[in-house]
Amino acid sequence: MRILPALLMALLAAPPALADETSELEYAVGRILEREGALFVDYEIAGNGKVTVLFGANEPEWRMRNTVEALQSHPNIAPALFWSRMDSEFCAIR
CB-based contacts of 41: which residues, under 8 Å, 6+ apart? Predict the structure, then answer.
């Protein structure tokens, strides 16, 4: 009977693999946005790994294009990437 509580505690203590993957994706997206200098952008990583990146109307076209190309070149981001340019301006991310 002691095996069941020990197994339950081991399962509760182990971090979910998906959370690690989401953290890695968030780090990768943040680094690419920083490297490309994208300021007027919002992004979200869904629990299923889908990456949504929204660019404000005040983000220069060339920077948006470079950023999207960089995101698409990342093997873990490219299959789950959705991006769009919005009609409204965004505040700069910090």
Answer: 33, 53, 54, 55, 56, 59, 67, 90, 93
The chain-wide mean pLDDT, for the chain, equals: 84
Name beta bridge partners: 83.
53
Phi-psi region of 56 (alpha: psi -120 to 50; beta: other; left: phi over 0): beta
Domain range annotation of the chain: 15-85
Three-state secondary structure call for residue 80: helix
| Interstrand relation of 51-55 and 81-85 (parallel, antiparallel or unpaired) | parallel
Q: What is the pLDDT of residues 45-84, one digit of tens each?
A: 998 889 999 999 999 999 999 999 999 999 999 999 999 9
CATH code, residues 15-85? 3.30.70
